[in-house]
Specification:
- This protein has two helices and six strands.
- It has about 170 residues and is an alpha+beta fold.
- It has one domain (about 5-165): 2-Layer Sandwich (Beta-Lactamase).
- It has a six-stranded antiparallel beta sheet with strand order 1-4-5-6-2-3, with helices on both faces.
């Protein structure tokens, strides 16, 4: 028998739609993208240390930050906001994306994180968590921002906007 709440995270591994970051629709995502651009200035990207919790206060519950492990072989969740995985009782902070209990999240997140780490460019993702239960299905718009030194992506800052599918 599955643990309480874990069954909500058994979504189909469907590919996300990865688009340029400029196409973000959600107001909080646009805010964070603008802040990321201001912090980076003339650099390729800002460093993780450039962000403070105060910078992200309005959307902290849906912030997640990942470390790039072994040249994109995997990604470790450095920070996961309480609203990133509603209904999942297990904190994902410190865990590898490849260990996530939802096969759909493992598949979608690995694709987007690898894309951002390899291109060193911000990206927008649109994906659908399809669980077979309309009560738990979600449309997710995500903003994925590279963080690091020079041209080397060390971390990826992500912000999610979760909505019921239309």
């Amino acid at each position: 028998m599955e643990e309480h709440g874990t069954h909500l995270f058994r979504s189909a591994p469907t590919a996300p739609d990865i688009r340029p970051a400029d196409t973000v629709e959600d107001e909080n995502l646009r805010y964070v993208l603008g802040h990321w651009r201001a912090l980076k200035g003339a650099r390729a990207m800002p460093a993780r240390a450039d962000f403070t919790p105060r910078d992200l206060k309005r959307c902290l519950p849906v912030v997640h930050i990942y470390d790039v492990i072994d040249g994109c072989a995997d990604f470790r969740a450095r920070l996961v906001g309480t609203g990133v995985y509603p209904g999942l009782d297990e904190d994902q902070t410190g865990k590898l994306v490849s260990e996530h209990p939802d096969p759909g999240v493992r598949f979608r997140f690995a694709l987007v994180l690898r894309h951002v780490a390899e291109t060193a460019e911000p990206a927008r993702s649109v994906s659908y968590r399809r669980t077979g239960s309309l009560l738990h299905d979600m449309r997710t718009e995500g903003l994925w921002l590279p963080l690091g030194q020079a041209d080397r992506v060390e971390n990826i800052l992500a912000i999610s906007a979760l909505k019921a599918p239309a």
